[in-house]
Structure formats: structure tokens, C-alpha cells
Amino acid sequence: MVLLAAVGTGAWAVFGRAGHPFDDARACEGSTVPLQPALGQARLSLPVDATDVHYYSYAGRAADGTVLAVSFHSTRQAMNTYLRRTGLVTEGLDSLDDGRFTLGDTGKDPATLHLCGDAPYIQAPAVLIEKERPRSDGAREVVDVAAQLTEAGLGGLRQETWVQLTVREPAG
Fold this sequence. Notes:
The longest helix has 14 residues, at 2-15. The protein has helices at 2-15, 35-41, 76-85; strands spanning 51-57, 66-75, 102-103, 126-134, 140-148, 160-168. The chain is 18% helix and 27% strand. Strands 1-2-6-5-4-3 form a 6-stranded antiparallel beta sheet. By secondary structure, the protein is an alpha+beta fold.
């Protein structure tokens, strides 16, 4: 009986609890890489104030090329700092609707990205910031950030915004 309890405890420690890999409640079932290494491989982090984080990571890649999908809640100030620091947007953060980026219902369906919890669909008014860049090994990757814009149509991010971050291999 003690051996059975030890095996059960060991399995829980290895496989996580309630479908959460790595014993990380932010990890969605099926994730194969912990969040920090997955972000590090993409040379990214999360904004300092990110909350309600849910992620799905792929050791290889999904059929659509996605290697990491993260949903989180943040503030305008933290996201503006994040977008500048990561080089995803270097100027014009108050006019994200000036034609440089895709507008509308810009996020992917969280279910298609295997995101769990309360990860929302990013609906209009919203912006999709897409940046293709070289990976550390020289191959190309695309970083997508979908975030909610102000409802007043001023072109900047909402004071409190949901964000969907994906890293994928480019098509073709």
C-alpha cells in the first residue's frame, strides 16, 4: 500500500496536477516545454504585470507552425514598454490603427491554440502586430501580438487589455 502511494505521489510530481504540465497551473494540457524556456528560446519574456497567464508550448511545432501561444492580461503602460523593449513596435504606440497593422477580430480562437482557462478571443477593436525576425539559429520566426484597442477609436491600447502572443514558423 505504501509503495502504491509512493508511485502515485511520484506520478503526480512528474505529470503535474489536473492536466497542468510541469506542475504549473498556467500550462495548458499537452504543453511540452515550460514557459520560461519556451519564451527564452524566442528571446521574449512577458510584461512585468502580466496576470491570468495561460500558455501552450510545442517541442516541435503545430500544423500551422505555432511553437508557443500565450494569453495574458496587462496594462497599456506595461504593454507599450514591452512592445518597445522587444522591438516589436518602436514608434507610434498611440496610433496602432494607422495602417501598419491588421485591425479587427485579430486573435486566433484560443481553442485552436490549445489555450486553456479563461483565455479570451481578442475581438475588435483590436490590433495584430506581426513581426518576422531571425531566430538565434538563423531560421525565421514570426511573433504575433493581438491586443485590444481603446473603444473610443483613438488607436492606442486599452488601459487594461487582454493579449494573445504567438510565436510561429513563417508559412511556406
